[in-house]
Amino acid sequence: MRVTFTVNGREESADDVWEGESLLYVLRERLGLPGSKNACEQGECGSCTVYLDGTPVCACLVAAGQAQGRRVRTVEGLAEGGRLDPVQEAFMECGAVQCGFCTPGLLVQAHDLLSRVARPSDAEIREALAGNLCRCTGYEKILDAVRLAAERKADPARARGEAGA
Amino acid sequence: MDFLRPTTWQEALAARAERPGALPLQGGTDVMVEINFDVRRPEALLDLTGVAELREWSVTGGVCRLGAGVTYATVIDELGGALPGLAQASRTVGSPQIRNRGTVGGNLGAASPAGDSHPPLLAAGAAVEVESRERGLRTIPAHAFYLGVKRPALEPDELIRAVRIPVAAGPQYFSKVGTRNAMVIAVCSFALALHPEERRVGTGIGSAAPTPLRALEAEDFLSRELDWDAALDLDWDAALDAGLLRRFGELCAAAAAPIDDVRGTAAYRRHAVAVMARRTLTWAWDDHRGRRAA
Fold first, then answer.
1. What single Pfam family name could you report for this chain, choosing any that match (chain A) (predicted)?
2. Are the Cβ atoms of A66 and B96 closer than 8 angstroms?
3. Which of A10, A42, B43, B68 is deepest in the core (most CB within 10 A)?
C-alpha cells in the first residue's frame, strides 16, 4: 500500500509498504531517515521515539498505515533554521552521548518535556525519560544536559551570550 | 495482509462483520509487538484510530463512559478525580510514550491477566459496551468479561465500543509489584474501591490467576465487618482492627490462583496479594475516616 504523511514539515509518500510494517521501518528504510533507531521493536527502549501529531510515541509500535495523513517529526527535524535545538547542544556540551544509539530518542523525549514544563524537577525529568534506556552513560550526564537545556530555553538571551563568549 | 481503515463506528462494525479474521488495532502497544516479532500474522489489521468518537469520554448520571480509544495519558490528565483507581493504574503503565498510545479499550481487547486496567475496573464495578452490526449493543460486567488467558468475552463480529465506570464515591487505590517503577509488567497487582453509600468494598486482583478477578469472599467479609460510621465518632486513633486486616489479606490471597513463571513464584504472588490488600485497605480506610470527619 501507499502511505503519505508529513515528515519534518514535508509531505512524503512511501510505496509498496507492507500492511504490518511499522512507522519506524518506513522512516528508516523507505524515507532515508535513519536518525530514529531500531533496537527492541517492542516499545521498551525508546530509541525510536518520534512525535506523531505532536505527541511522543515509539515509532516501532505505530503501524505505518496509522500515520496516513498525519504529522511526524523525527530527531532530524529538531534543528531549526540551521541551528541545533538547545536540547541537542546541551547533550553535546555535557557529554551526554557515548555510543549514541539511545540519543535520538532521548532528544525527542527531552524536547517534548521542555516544551511542556519549562523548569522540570529532577523527578519530572526522570519520569519523562523512564522509557528511554541508555546502557553507556548511567544517565547522570543526560540529566545534566536536560537541566542545562531547560536553563537555556528559559533564558535564551543569556544562552546566546554565553555561546558567543 | 490488508489494512482496514474505517472512519466511522458503522464502518468499523461492518469491517468487523465482514472480516472476522481482522485484528482490531488501537495504540499498537500489544498488537505491533506481536507483528514485529512474527508471533502473529492476522489476515488484516482493523485500525480503529480513525474513528474519532472512540477517543471521547463523558460523565452522565454518576457514570463515566470511556471510549475504547481513550489513552492512558488522557485518563491520567483528565480523569484522576472521577476514576482515581484507574488513573493510578494508568500511571504505572509502561512509559510516557506507551501511555500516549495505549488505550483502556485495547487493554480489554487483549485481556492479558497482567493488564493494569483490569483490577481497578473490577473494583469499581465497570461494564464493557460491545457491539456487532447484526446483534447490536450489549453490556458485559467487567467480572464476566475475562474468560481465560487473553480471552475476552467477545464474539468474532463484536468490537469494544466503550467502558462504563461508576464515578468514585469513595477512596480507591491500586498497587502493583514489579522490578522498577517504569516499563514493568505486573508480577501481580491489586485494586480496592470503597463504596461507602452501598457499604460495600470492591476488589480486583491482577496477574495472579488465569484471568483478572475479584476476591468475592474478601469483599463480603469486609462489607459485613467494617464499621462504616466509625468516623462519626471522631476517634482519630482508631485504626483498622489488626485481625480484620489480616483476615482480609488472607481471603484475597486465597482468591488468587497464581502460577510460577519468570516474573515470580506462585507463593510470592500469593504473599504479595495479601500485603497489597492490607495496604490498599489501610490507605482507603484512612481516607474514608478523614473524609467523614472533615
1. Fer2_2
2. no
3. B68
Query: Does residue A32 form part of some domain?
Result: yes
Helix (H) or strand (E) holding A154: helix A140-154
Q: For the segment B177-188, what is each residue's pLDDT rounded down to a tens digit?
A: 999 888 999 999
CB contact under 8 A, B36 and A46: no
Where among A77, A99, A115 does a domain terminate? A77
Residue A96 pLDDT: 97
Nearest CB to B100; choose among A41, A56, A127: A56
CB A59 within 8 A of CB A50: yes
- Is the ipTM above a cut-off of 0.90? yes
Residue A147 lies in domain: 86-160
* 3-state percent breakdown (helix, strand, coil) of chain B, nearest 5: 40, 25, 35
Is B97 within 8 Å of A66 when comparing Cβ atoms?
A: no
User: A66, A112, A134: which to substitute to probe chain B, counting the most B Cβ within 10 Å?
Assistant: A66
Tally of CB atoms within 10 A around A13: 11
Measured between beta carbons, which residues in chain A are less than 8 angstroms from residue B100? Answer: 55-57
The verdict on A50 and A92 lying in the same domain is no
* Total domain count, chain A: 2
CB of B19 within 8 Å of a chain A CB? The answer is no
